[in-house]
Amino acid sequence: MLLLALDTATPAVTVALHDGDDVIASSSQVDARRHGELLLPAVDRVLAEAGLRLDAVTGIVAGIGPGPYTGLRVGLMTADTFGLALGVPVHGVCTLDGLAYAADLDGPFVVATDARRKEVYWARYADSRTRLTEPAVDRPADIADQVAGLPAVGAGALLYPDTFPQAREPEHVSAAALARLAVERLKAGQELPAPRPLYLRRPDAQVPKNYKVVTPK
């Protein structure tokens, strides 16, 4: 087994290689505006660090969000392209699940990432491997009662201390955590979903109302 894991659902552009036993190379850079520019060089970097070629990869793991449309699609399109070119399966893992796994907490807690527009993408967890709620996008003040008293991880939690007073790191997801979680689930016989994006809301760019299509006669 050699899994290539990547995620661009948060400001972190993160890539890792997992050989079935552990992560053998990883790279993470935080830059919310350069996902497309940074991702492929990061893939090259981790392959070079491991002394391997891309054609040695037996599977792809992609973070499926939730996340902003522009950043998220960079990682998912890259993962799908690699899968088609190499003829290997592509597995999707919720980005919030990767953050929860990296947090390594035993009791109930919350994961919240920055959704911009003064909102967070969030979900509740029973422990680092068990999600209790579906990912959602909300204003922090609107979910204060649902997260009260719970530890919280992620950039969204750190941004809003009034709602998440027990906020802590990790701030962003790491592909290393995604890879470890994916391998654990695969070895347990779980079927990982296809890499379909969790956008949760419409993209900023939309067709204006009353738009008229003009075609030549």
UniProtKB/TrEMBL annotation:
Task: Domain (Gcp-like): give its ranges.
Answer: 32-144
Q: Name one Pfam family in it.
A: TsaD
Keyword Protease on this protein? no
**E.C. number:** 2.3.1.234
Among InterPro entries, the record links this protein to: ATPase_NBD, Gcp-like_dom, T6A_TsaB
What UniProt keywords are attached to this protein's entry? Acyltransferase, Transferase
Q: Which PANTHER family match?
A: TRNA N6-ADENOSINE THREONYLCARBAMOYLTRANSFERASE (PTHR11735), TRNA THREONYLCARBAMOYLADENOSINE BIOSYNTHESIS PROTEIN TSAB (PTHR11735:SF11)
Protein name from the UniProt record: tRNA (Adenosine(37)-N6)-threonylcarbamoyltransferase complex dimerization subunit type 1 TsaB
Q: Tell me the lineage of the source organism.
A: Bacteria, Bacillati, Actinomycetota, Actinomycetes, Kitasatosporales
Q: Which gene encodes it?
A: tsaB
